[in-house]
Records
---
Amino acid sequence: MQKKLAICPGSFDPITNGHLDIIRRGATIFDEVIIAIFNNQSKTPLFSVEERIHLIEQATKDIENVRVDVSEGLLVDYAKEQNAHAVLRGLRAVSDFEYEMQITSMNKKLEPDIETFFMMTNNQYSFLSSSIVKEVARYNGNITNLVPKVVEEALLAKFN
Ligand code: ADP
């Protein structure tokens, strides 16, 4: 039988425990999860793509069926190229919903065979985003428990 692959797309600038929670849970449902870094042109990233790959690899090294990749094009094209029919996204608050619905509807129009699956965030991470973590880290706030240790160290190094 064909492997059930899911693409988990995002900026991951940097990866947080909220992302990891979705990835870990997704990896119990799908045969393999590909964490795909999409270089969003409208955002100026703090971490380079190489740095983000490294951080994700470190943070997920204990999860066997997860790998990291990078793409610059359309998510649906990437998914097809990988032979994946599923996209995995996390939902935090109602505020995520409109944006996700717009993207999912467009992807469905572009590629009807690809299904998007949403996982509700773990309550403890519902307020957590890469942006807020960067903001807190910039002013020396405590981010332990919000990001993996390697990410905490990388953020400290960036802002010192
Ligand atoms: P994007 O720029 O595409 O939103 P992100 O890296 O911010 O990329 O997020 C990637 C995915 O992870 C999105 O589906 C987002 O909703 C989800 N996500 C981010 N933070 C959390 C969190 N704290 N809990 C659950 N899902 C999250």
Note: Residues 5-159 form a domain with the Rossmann fold fold (CATH 3.40.50.620).
---
Amino acid sequence: MSMPAAYAAHSAASQGRRWPEESSASRAEFQRDRDRVIHSNAFRRLEYKTQVFVNHEGDLFRTRLTHSIEVAQLARSIARSLRLDEDLAEAIALAHDLGHTPFGHAGQDALNECMQGYGGFEHNLQSLRVVDILEERYGAFDGLNLTFETREGILKHCSADIAASLGDVGRRFIDGTQPSLEAQITNLADEIAYNNHDIDDGLRSGLIDLEQLAEVPLFQRHFRIALTLFPDVAERRRINETIRRMINTLVRDLVDTTNERLTQRGPESIAAVRAAPPLVMHSEEVRAESLELKRFLRDKLYQHYKVQRMSTKGRRIVGELFGAFMSDPRLLPPQYQAKADIDRARAVADYISGMTDRYAMREHRRLFAVEDI
Ligand code: MG
């Protein structure tokens, strides 16, 4: 492996953990962060949380877990190309969705609505809350006690109000500075991953088709190449050949454009990266194409009536669970009852957001299905 660049985050120069710990003889700090995320409860729950398709709809669809692993793969290879810290990129990628509710964005929207008047609910902020507070693995402290750099990467966006309550990790939202390049690339790796895998899952589910995708230039261009190269293979293989080419185009464009920016700007340290404007980006053409892809997914897949039906159900389950626990906290499991004594709404939101899709459905049945008494 080549030497990390001067502008990379360096494990040995980390701004540290909230509770000081001795360093490990065999593992770098960001590597330990990555390992802690993998061993967390919240990470294992990602397996049963919806990305777009509810987990039980089919075994081949992405879940939050496989999505996070794909993001980590992309972030890691982009980090390697740019001589950044691969462990940090991977730690941020694996942790970035830990705070997601069951039922994808529908669940988050429902919980956020319920939490109006109690400080709201935002999955990105919740991911930080999971690693800072909610995981219970250590004797001496709550949370996973991750480094500042991993925590800052997890917190992708944040209002100035909330940022002010978060201490050091919120400061950049107030003073308008940037996070590490590792955080910046992971953010874009997330987009590359979901745009492409949602096309793939969308086609597999039959909710979108190849004819509709003729209006998406990025797809169409690569599909034509795949068709020329492989005129006789099964369509599924041709789709895979198309998608791998799309991912490759996006990743290469990101690496090339970012490399140019880094050469122009020449940041000599992570401090210079923080003070500079965002340095990780796509070229104008590719950005425009990827926006078109996004728009297509929003109109044709995320708003498809079959996806909407699932979303509506998910919203209803989350809303009704919230209402039941708020009006009678004695329905909560004991460890959450204790927390509810301090802040009822936040304890209920923590409990619900931690649920997997199937656990939320089971819990809903236990509370509302009269025939199950
Ligand atoms: Mg994501």
Note: The radius of gyration is 22 Å.
---
Amino acid sequence: MNRIAVPRFQRPGLRAGVLGLSGGLVIAAAFLIAANVSDHLATTATNEAVRTTAAVVHGYVDPMVMAGSLETPDAAHAALINGELAQLVSSHQILRIKIWSPNGTILYSDLPALVGQTFPVDDELAEALDGEVATEYSSGDQPENVYERGLATHFLSIYLPIEVGGHVAGAYEIYEDAAPIEAQIAATRQDVLLIVGAMAMGLLALLFGAFSGASHLLARQTRRLRRNAERFRSLVQNSADVNMVVRPDWTIAYESPAVERVLGYPAAGHVRRSALEMLHPDDRPWAEQLLAEIVRIPGAQITGELRARHADGSWRLIELVLKNLLNDPAVAGVVVNYRDITVRRELEDELKRQAFHDSLTGLANRALFADRLEHAIARSRRLRGPLAVLFVDLDDFKTVNDSLGHTEGDQLLVGVAHRLQSVLRAGDTIARMGGDEFAVLVEDPSDAEAPNEVAGRLLGSLEAPFMLGSKEVFVHASVGIAASGPSILSGEELLRNADVAMYTAKNNGKNRVEDFRPSMHEAALARLALKGDLERAMERGEFRLLYQPIIHLESSRLIGVEALIRWDRGDRLVGPDEFIPVAEETGLILPLGKWVLEEACRQLHAWDTTSTRRLKMSVNVSGRQLQQAGFVAEVAGALASTGVRPDRLTLELTETVLMQDAEAATATLADLKWLGVRLAIDDFGTGYSSLSYLRRFPIDELKIDRSFIASMADGPEQAAVVLSILRLGETLHLETVAEGIELEGQMTALVGLGADLGQGFFFSAALTPTAITGILDEVTWQAGELAREPADAQSEAVRVA
Ligand code: C2E
Ligand code: CA
Ligand code: CA
């Protein structure tokens, strides 16, 4: 039992009464008188104590109550009270103080462990909470009063109501040491016993005792009853609900005062008038019906909702419970209990809205879209009307989002949602399915072209740039369309088909629309099969590395190689473009990338043992690898296990990969740099971001994308792009490698522009390790030779030729 602080008191008067009935009459009477006298003494002493302690406590606590800070006494007040209490406690005037809230929670106690605990409200506390001062007297002999027993042998406990503005807000409870009264009581009891014993006035005493006891009990009982009645009345009056008794025609017979609070009318102002007057005209027939129904069945109960007019003119939503008590003579009417649920309903509606809408854009969410789609399909089954689902996915939004930051990314999404919605008919549903994906439900397209028209409008709406602050941002999207034809599909199938079509639109170059065709589904299935095959390929060791030579252009010397992965499927070598995206999706890229690193380092070491030529090794790294926590350790491990010096390894990263999570990338790159490996930006010039990151990331090398090399011959402008990248490299002290050199003319032009290094089919496609071993010790590169005449049947050149 955690009830520590409230000792179980026994009222002397009552205890005497009980003894009197079971023991000798004379002694009983004597005790009774003694008890009454001591009761009186205790009361006098208590009154005195109440006055002094109340004065002290009121002095400190009342300002807090007035300031409304009783619930959370601030530090200053608490310190003040604590100081005063410490004094009182040391002077032994007060042993303990508590402040109770009306529900039995201790708001304040000088014993901090009690604060915040809630106990059942006992009789004396209830009296105080009813506005009366209650006192008790106890030896604190309960086990839970261990602490009090250490303070004194007997206690006087005083409960004082705390009143604020006429209402009882709580109660103080104060313990005083009762020893002085105790002594007085004992003395009186002895005196009285002597006198009574000498007089031997048994009968008189018995009569007196009986009357006194009975009247005492009666008074107590009456007080309790009165209190209960008052409590009930106050419950009805202060209840948030209005209680009303109506006749079978809605005439009001009684109305509780709460009507003033709920509907703003003066209490009882409507008695003998019809309650229907207060109701919304549209709800009146229903209300009449409701009452007519219930009147027929005695004791029946019905719940309903109606709109009632508030005195301020507004309509409030009322929830009411009607109970037929016409047969109950005490009521003889229908009891109507009602409350205002307007705010609650608004809250419910808001929650419902939140559950079915995307909080960022305010569009429908996936759940609502699915619901609308199912309804639309049911309707289309009935009416044989067509319907279509459009799946919209923003192009490269992740890159845009990462470079903008999430707040502006969100802002952009809101803008996009707004534009998409603005070009739809009112009847069409648009939803945000998550991230940068949207879906549109087009019901009853007017003709077969309609969904495509809608898609065109959607893409058109995104054409103009978005303004984010002073920045112009361009956003495009890919759209897939799935229409339900004669064979009506489920909502799930429609959505999946639209998704597959969208995916095809992405693969076909983005910023475009594709209609779903079953063959697309096959392609999607093939991808799925590929996932399984890839996993097995990893287990079976079907991956190979080929190495494309990197040449010093002016001297034609082989200076390094780039490791390029192939999947050996037995009948053919599959290129990375076919499986790297899927491996990234499934996460297989992590073990695969680790294998590439280890294998490339192992191969480099093997060449070191057969030749004096020290090649450099370039390895491609995907975004997921870079983001992986243990990546730096993985690189270090590959180097350590093969003994390859870190500066002979170059990791190639694309701009997109670097920008995916620039913050994290910066940290990882710094670690890699610390390790001593070289870092290159692959496909340089094709990425989204600006040049600022070139300074931000510790880059050693730029690989000029082959598209620039290919278009160099188109005109001076195109050549100027290559030149400017070369100059940029010079300025920032970065090595440059021209990729995709296919023609001699490109090579000479590059040399003319001052390019240093290059790779491409003009020199060689990717070769097997053996083929590289064969040319390692050649002094200069025989330009073009290998491209025309592959040294090895498995070389890349076979495939390319
Ligand atoms: P990349 O890093 O730009 O690699 C160069 C690609 O260009 C190679 O394609 C190469 O065969 C091809 N190429 C080389 N010279 C010429 C040329 O003169 N003309 C043309 N048209 N193409 C040329 P590949 O091997 O199919 O690799 C494609 C992409 O796959 C690579 O582009 C790289 O991003 C990725 N990749 C290759 N191996 C790996 C790897 O081990 N890990 C990861 N994560 N990605 C890899
Ligand atoms: Ca590369
Ligand atoms: Ca490249």
Note: Residues 562, 620, 652, 682 surround calcium ion (ligand 2) (CB under 6 Å).
---
Amino acid sequence: MSSPSRASFGSKFGIIMAAAGSAVGLGNIWRFPIETGQNGGAAFILIYIIAIAPHAYKKLSSHPFWSNIGFIGVLGGSLILCYYVVVAGWVLKYMFLSLDGTLSTLFVPGDASGYESLFGNFVSSPWSPLLFMVLFVLMCHFAIAAGVRKGIEKLSKIFMPALFVILIVLVGFSLFAPGAQEGLSFLFHPDFSKLTTGSVLSAIAQAFYSLSLCMGCLCTYASYFGKDVNIVKSAVSISVIDTMVAIMAGLIIFPAVFSAGISPQSGPSLAFIALPGAFQQAFGSVPAVAYIVSVLFYALLVLAALTSAISLYEVPTAYIHETWHIRRRYAALVVTAVCLMLGTVCSLSMGVLGDLHIFGKSVFDFLDYFCTTIMMPLSGVFIAIFLGWVVKRDIFMDDVTNGRTLRAAPAGVIHWLLRWVAPILLLAAFLGVLGVI
Ligand code: TRP
């Protein structure tokens, strides 16, 4: 049963900011650009948010199989964290590189080779990326050690509004970039002929990643909600915020990329090679603007990465805190130690450990693949089956309608979706991404 020490969030605003903080992350800014417009999934977010804690499955079912599926999330969340902090470290480094002017001095019109070698040399060098990763991990550690209200909630309430302000300022600049028109039309005129079954399936994976589903984050956060929180409404708000941020990120990125005459792409090469030059090219006529845009963009990424990484951190921390009955601070120390060790291996896999392969992939790529293509959909299938079939419908309805004080219709629809649609869709996504169907 729930431990008496279970923490809670202090306000509804805090809840929304913390959950949106988890959802809005690097995924919105570098996974979204190519998968444009396909990542809104208010129904999916519910799959997880209605659960109560990593131990929820144990509380709701005595069968050993079901009581352990929460563990997939704990493991998956921890593994995602270990490579997420590596990229977050790069982002931190790039914030400093734009602050000290390096990114603007490297600019040569029409030639990205300066940025290419800067990035290549940086990620493959042993010490510098590690240093920034450690810095980032320490920030997360202190936030988590400070507690749910004083750490997670307080930070989210400051960082998320700051993130929105930066986004709006950047969108404003971007819309005035020469060539903005072309970028906007790329974003808003989707080419349906390119939409294949494969892209639909990977969009489901993108939706899950972007909304932080299935890896225990929202489940753990939801366990800190008061009983009076309307989870259907919260889930919708969080999905809307997440999708809006992704679209706004597109509004910043595409006009800059098109005005620089670069073809749109995603992944590290977009954020660390194409964009620094694109910002200079697009705003270079007023160097101060190019400088401000660049600094603000990387600051935005740091804020987004921090609140997401904190939510990933909280999953194993809460689990260890409750399972081992040790203090939160010590549980956070265990997580930090493991994260630093695995994160170091991931970081070095870009350079000195580049020859170390797991199933033909570098450690970094393998972890990303394993977590997002295997663990996430698999966990999703189990959760949908668990909530749709194993947990009694009455218990489900009670929980989603706050003890029948809210309208039952949305809860009924969600239950039906969890029972009949979600398992099939998720299984299809899983097999599709694996290339089986
Ligand atoms: N959603 C975050 C992003 O967009 C990343 C993230 C946080 C995540 N928690 C997660 C992804 C849990 C999958 C599962 O960057």
Note: The mean pLDDT is 85.
